Known about the structure:
Blueprint: H1 8-41, H2 48-62
Amino acid sequence: MRNFEIGPKEADTNMKADERANERAALEAVINYAIQCARETDVLGAGDALEEARLNLSRTVLT
């Protein structure tokens, strides 16, 4: 008989944590892409305005 390092409940918890981490990484990538597009088209101005927009998006989407 095999002994598993973790049980089904722990495996489920780990899987859900991995899914949340992947979702968060994907959202961060979308935010970074949106800011990069804005920078390239000069939509929001430069520097501080873009950083403020990135912070606001991150705060809104990731919390």
